[in-house]
Each structure stands twice: as C-alpha cells, then as structure tokens.
C-alpha cells in the first residue's frame, strides 16, 4: 500500500463502496511516516463500513475518542482492533485480499517499531494471544475427541450387549434343536438303509431291462428275417431253402456258430442298413455268451474296423451279467492287447453297478492278476462317488487282502474330494468299524491338502462331534504346511488360544523369514496383540543373530519394522516395552531401539511413559542416560516436553527432571515458560504430580532467570489464566529479590497500561496494606 506498493484489488473495491456521508478529520502533519501510513490504510478500510466512529465504537464497546485516536494516528492500535475492522469489512461483503491484509499487518509492525515504549510488550502480547488461540483450538479438539471416545465406548457397550444376547439365543436354540437333531439322525439312518435297498433294486431292474431289450431286439430281428424269407419264397414260387444265408439268418445263429470275422461283417452290414441299435445288441449278446478270448478278439476287431462305439456299449453289460472272475480275466486280456481304455470302462461300470462286496472282489482279482493300478483306480473312484456305507463295507471286505495301501490311497483321495460333512461322518464310521488307520489317513490328507478355511471348519466339526483327539491330530498336521497356508489358517481360526499355539510352534520350527511374514500379516490384519506376542517370543530367546535376521526381514516387508514396533509399544506393558528396547539395543539395532524410545516418550499416557523410563533406568539402558535424554528433548515442542517432564516425575528420576527443566527454562523466551506450565496443568490436572513439576519450574525461574524475566512472566501467567501460579511466582520472587522485583514489576506495569494497577498481582495487595496502615 505504501513505499511503492500497488493498491490491491480488494482496496480498489473498498474505495468503490465508500459512502460520502462518513468523514474523518485530517491527519496531523507531524505524524511519523510509519504511523501515517498505517492510519491512512486503516482509515481506508474503516470507511468501507459506511458507519460513523461513534456507531462503530458502540458496536465494539469502545470509547469513541479511543477509536478516533486510532484512526487519526495519534495512537498505534493493538492488532486486535485492526483484525476486528477487517472482520467487519468482510461481513459487509467487501473482503480484503490476503495480500492486502498482510500488507496492513506489515504496516502495523512498522508502526509498533517506531513506537518503542510499547512495541516489546505488544509483541509479547501478540505471541500470548496466538498461544491462547492455539490453546483454545487444542481444547476444542480435546473436547471433540472426548465426545467421540464416549460415543464409541457407548456404541461398543451396546454392540457387546447385542453379542451377549445373540450368544444366549444361539445357546438356547442349540439346546432346543439338539433333541430334534437326534430324531432326524435316526430318520437319516433309516433313509440311508432304504436308499441302499432301493439302489440294489435299481441295479437288478437295470439288468433285467437290458436282458429284456436284447430279447426284444432278437424277436424283432427274427420277425424281420421270417418276413424276408416269406417274400423270397413267394417270389421264387418254391419252398426250397437252398439260397445263401441272409444277414438275418446270420444274426440268428451269431451267438452259436458265427466266427469273429463274420460277426464283424454282420455289424458292418447292420451299420450300412442304419441298424446301429441292432448291431450293438448283437455285440452285447456275443460278448455275454462267448469265451473271454473270443470276446477280446471281437472287441479288438471291432476297434480295428472302426466300430469302437459298439464295443464300448457292450462292456458295461458284461460287468452286470458275467462273473467277477470273467470280468477280471477280461480286464487282464484287454490290458495285454493294449486296450487300456476298455479296462477303464470295466472299472467305471463296476463302480456304478456292483455291490460293495463285488467291487471289493473285483479289486482283489485285478490286484492278483497284475492290474494293481486299475484296482487302485476302482477303489479311488468308489471312494469319491459311492455312499459312505458302501465305502466302509469295501474297506472291511479288503482287510488282509494286500490292498491296504490301495484302500489308504482311496481314503486320501476322498479327503480331497468329499464335502466336509462326509469327512466327519466317514471318520466316525471308520472309528466305529475299527478301521482307525484309514481314518488317520483321511484326516492327515485333509489337513495336508484342503484349504485353510476347510481345515479350520473340519477341526471345529470334529471337536463338535466329540472327536477331540482327531481334531488335535488334524490341527497338528496342518501346521506342517507352508507359510502360505499357515497365514489364512490363522485368519480362519476363531480361537486366539489355538492361534497362539500355531504361532508358538512356528516360532520353534519355522525359518526366521517365515516368522517375520507371520508378524507382518498379523499386524496388517489388525491382530496387533498376537503380532506383538510373537515378536516378543523371539526377543525373549535373546539370540542376537535371529533377532537381527527377524528385524531385517520385517524391514523388507510392508509396512516395515517401524510401524510394527509402534504398535507393540501401544500393546505391551511398560516393563515389557523396556525389555524390547533392551533386546534391540543389545543386538546393535540402535535405529529400531530409538523408534521404541520415541514412541514411548511421545506417548500421551504419562504414567505409562513413566514406568517405561523407570524400567530403563533399572536395567541400565543407554537411553536412560542423562545426555541421551537431553538430546532427545531438544527437538520437542512444549506439549511433548510437558509430557516428558511429568513422566520423569512419575518415574522418580529427579536428576533427569532437573536437567530437562534447566535446558527448557533457562534461556527460552518467557512465553515458552507460560506455554509449558499451561500444558503441564492441562495434561496432569490438579494432582500432586503436575503441581510438583510446575512448582520446580517456578523455583528454577526464581533462582536462575533475571529478575526482569520474572517480572515479565508474572503478567503473562495471569493473562494465560494461571492465576494461582502467578501468585506463587509473585510470592517467591518477592521473597527472594524484594525491592528489585517490585521495581521491575512496576516498570513492566508502566509499559503495559499505566492506568490499570490491578492487572499486576502484588500491587493491589500492597496498596491495600498501605491503606490499612494509614
């Protein structure tokens, strides 16, 4: 605005809205340049309001002559007055730009400097006002946080109450439905038995239907053959049957006299006549009545002739009508001929149509004839698709047959393919049938192959059915898997006790990197207590190499060791936090030890930090040394310094407290002491701890600071609302320095406001005493 500055846009706007009826007296010619510049710009801003001086003075509860002197430049107004005018202009829809407001502030500072007697006090008053604003903001934030904390605590208690009600309701429902469950379990067993009977009937009816279909096709073929013969006889006019046999005649005698090549030709002729169903029935009939060697030859010839579909259609019917020995012999011969896919069809048909004892017999026969692989395939397929009672019956039948390994492999496959309820039911059934070794295989494979969520649910189901030893076995086996399984398994466990068992075992047997990954994952998932417990479990071993490896591994992960250590300091007791710092310090990890130290020293919980510092002092830690503590305290602001002082007092570290007070209060501005005392009072409240620390600060000021500083501190404490401590300082300073302190206080009083003696503590009392003496 002055000294060559261009007018701001806001100033132009202000000038535009000046109302002509408002006028001010001209400025005096003998005004200093700084005051004139401030008065001119302040008048320009004031005129934007469009109101008289007297009206504005009434609005602001000021004396009109005081406002006039401010606007005429006779007195330098306090910044509060200038800020109030700016705020009123903003309310009048004529706001100043930030640049114009800053220029006005610069002019105010220059005017204060030209007015030497009050500039120093004004600067101190401005700083005090800023500190008071900061205190009000912090107080407001504290109240907001307290309200939010009370709200969250109330909501937490409400949610906990709902959880308790739900748990009670669930327990009641569980007891109510337990009786119903027993009834339905009996009904389920009865229905299972009925299903088995119906399955047997279905298989019998399917076999009968296949035979009836073959008989029907044979009868239709015979009728067709007779029709053709009748037409031939009628056409030739004779009953001579000397003609060459027709296709129908060959089909009639196929089962008894036709050779394999003739059967293949008959199938070919039927294919040409689009009689595929008849061709398939011809192959079925021939396969059921001929020797194994002839059947193998027929099937091989059909494949070579391109009629593989008819061969595959005949195989399931053979399984249903031929004996187990014939089926196993056929499988052996087919395997020798290289027709492995036909053997698989036989195995699939056995799984689909055979009763459990027939499946077991076929598996035994296949094993004896050298087809152990196909025997295992048969048992594995049955383990996946057949009902559980059939599977147990097969296992019982195969006891002492040399197929124990095959049955175990089948159980292992069932563990990976069957639903979890089937695994629980199968475990119970196998235990009851004295087949515990197969139950062990089933559970071990489930623990080794199923997902983490499935394993956790399996363990819970086994425990719920009373199989606690089985559940513990599964729990132990699954912990042997990779760290990629262990992490989701920990998340799936709902019991922290079991989770801790997993972590304890991992700490004993896992590589250090795996342990670091576990700590990191637990921290990332919000389970800070478990992460910290695992970390401390490694620390308590006091193995420097492992601790350094663990910290290095966590440094390479996200979010890193610093965040994990910060969470640990919030979870651990102060003594354990001190032990953590000592472990890190012992292993040469100074940077990480410093993270722990700073996290605790900057903690809002003063008692917590005090116990931590006390434990460090007891253990002889490097961080409990006076020089180290001083170094860390140098960069602290007043809030954290206050917390540290209270913590040192709580820890009974008097020497450290004295040193910190000396560093903070000897050469600092008086305002810093006011802020420090205010912060100590707000943190500690009216308790002996905060009182002792504040009292020691006052004593230090009286002993070490100049008397002039003590005189300046007194009104500053009053202005900050610390009247009790102002009176304390007044009494101690008066007792220690007497007239010198009173003289300095009187000079401070003159510099501030010579008309208001009551603002200075001590003067009013002495005036009263003099009046009483008079």
UniProtKB/TrEMBL annotation:
Residues 181-236 form a coiled coil. It comes from the Bacteria. Keywords: Coiled coil. Residues 752-774 are annotated as: Disordered. The keyword Coiled coil applies. This is ATP/GTP-binding protein.
């Amino acid at each position: 605005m002055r000294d060559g500055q261009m007018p701001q846009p806001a100033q132009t706007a202000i000038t535009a809205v000046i109302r002509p009826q408002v006028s001010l007296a001209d400025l005096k010619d003998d005004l200093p340049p700084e005051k004139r510049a401030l008065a001119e710009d302040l008048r320009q801003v004031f005129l934007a309001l469009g109101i008289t001086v007297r009206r504005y003075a009434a609005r602001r509860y000021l004396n009109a002559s005081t406002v006039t002197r401010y606007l005429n430049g006779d007195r330098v107004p306090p910044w509060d007055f200038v800020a109030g005018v700016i705020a009123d202009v903003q309310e009048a829809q004529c706001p100043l730009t930030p640049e114009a407001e800053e220029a006005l502030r610069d002019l105010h500072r220059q005017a204060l400097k030209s007015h030497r007697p009050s500039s120093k006090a004004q600067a101190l008053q401005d700083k005090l006002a800023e500190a008071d604003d900061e205190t009000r903001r912090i107080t407001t934030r504290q109240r907001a946080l307290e309200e939010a904390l009370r709200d969250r605590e109330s909501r937490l208690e409400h949610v906990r109450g709902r959880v308790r009600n739900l748990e009670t309701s669930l327990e009641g429902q569980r007891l109510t439905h337990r009786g119903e469950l027993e009834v339905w379990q009996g009904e389920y067993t009865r229905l299972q038995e009925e299903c088995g009977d119906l399955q047997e009937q279905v298989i019998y009816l399917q076999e009968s239907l296949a035979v009836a279909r073959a008989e029907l096709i044979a009868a239709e073929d015979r009728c067709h053959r007779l029709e053709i013969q009748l037409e031939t006889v009628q056409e030739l006019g004779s009953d001579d049957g000397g003609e060459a046999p027709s296709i129908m005649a060959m089909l009639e005698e196929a089962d008894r006299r036709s050779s394999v090549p003739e059967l293949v030709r008959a199938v070919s002729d039927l294919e040409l006549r689009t009689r595929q169903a008849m061709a398939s029935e011809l192959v079925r009939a021939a396969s059921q009545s001929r020797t194994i060697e002839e059947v193998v030859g027929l099937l091989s010839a059909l494949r070579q002739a391109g009629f593989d579909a008819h061969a595959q259609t005949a195989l399931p019917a053979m399984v249903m009508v031929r004996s187990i020995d014939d089926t196993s012999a056929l499988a052996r011969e087919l395997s020798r001929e290289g027709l492995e896919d036909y053997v698989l069809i036989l195995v699939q048909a056995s799984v689909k149509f055979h009763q459990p004892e027939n499946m077991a017999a076929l598996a035994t026969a296949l094993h004896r004839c050298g087809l152990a692989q196909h025997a295992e395939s048969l048992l594995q397929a049955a383990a996946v698709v057949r009902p559980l009672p059939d599977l147990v019956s097969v296992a019982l039948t195969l006891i002492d047959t040399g197929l124990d390994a095959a049955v175990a492999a089948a159980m292992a496959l069932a563990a990976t393919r069957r639903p979890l309820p089937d695994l629980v039911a199968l475990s119970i059934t196998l235990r009851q049938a004295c087949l515990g070794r197969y139950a062990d295989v089933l559970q071990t494979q489930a623990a080794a192959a199923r997902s983490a969520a499935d394993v956790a649910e399996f363990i819970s189901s086994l425990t719920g059915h009373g199989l606690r030893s089985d559940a513990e076995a599964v729990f132990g086996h699954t912990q042997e898997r990779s760290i990629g399984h262990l992490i989701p398994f920990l998340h799936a466990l709902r019991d922290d006790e079991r989770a801790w068992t997993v972590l304890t075992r991992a700490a004993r047997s896992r590589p250090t990197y795996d342990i670091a990954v576990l700590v990191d994952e637990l921290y990332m998932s919000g389970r800070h207590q478990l992460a910290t417990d695992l970390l401390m479990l490694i620390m308590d071993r006091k193995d420097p190499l492992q601790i350094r490896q663990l910290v290095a591994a966590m440094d390479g992960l996200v979010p890193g060791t610093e965040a994990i250590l910060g969470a640990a300091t919030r979870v651990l007791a102060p003594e354990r936090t001190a032990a953590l710092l000592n472990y890190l310090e012992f292993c040469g990890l100074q940077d990480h030890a410093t993270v722990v130290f700073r996290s605790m020293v900057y903690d809002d919980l003063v008692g917590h930090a005090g116990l931590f510092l006390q434990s460090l002092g007891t253990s002889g830690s490097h961080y409990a040394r006076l020089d180290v503590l001083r170094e860390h305290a140098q960069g602290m602001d007043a809030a954290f310094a206050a917390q540290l002082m209270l913590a040192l007092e709580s820890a009974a570290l008097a020497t450290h407290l004295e040193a910190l007070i000396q560093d903070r209060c000897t050469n600092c501005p008086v305002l810093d002491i006011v802020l420090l005392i205010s912060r100590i009072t707000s943190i500690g409240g009216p308790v002996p701890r905060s009182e002792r620390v504040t009292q020691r600060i006052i004593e230090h000021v009286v002993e070490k600071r100049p008397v002039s500083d003590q005189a300046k501190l007194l009104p500053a404490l009053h202005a900050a609302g610390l009247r009790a401590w102002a009176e304390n300082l007044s009494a101690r300073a008066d007792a220690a320095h007497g007239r010198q302190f009173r003289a300095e206080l009187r000079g401070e009083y003159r510099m501030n406001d010579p008309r208001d003696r009551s603002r200075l503590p001590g003067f009013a009392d002495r005036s009263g005493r003099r009046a009483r003496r008079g």
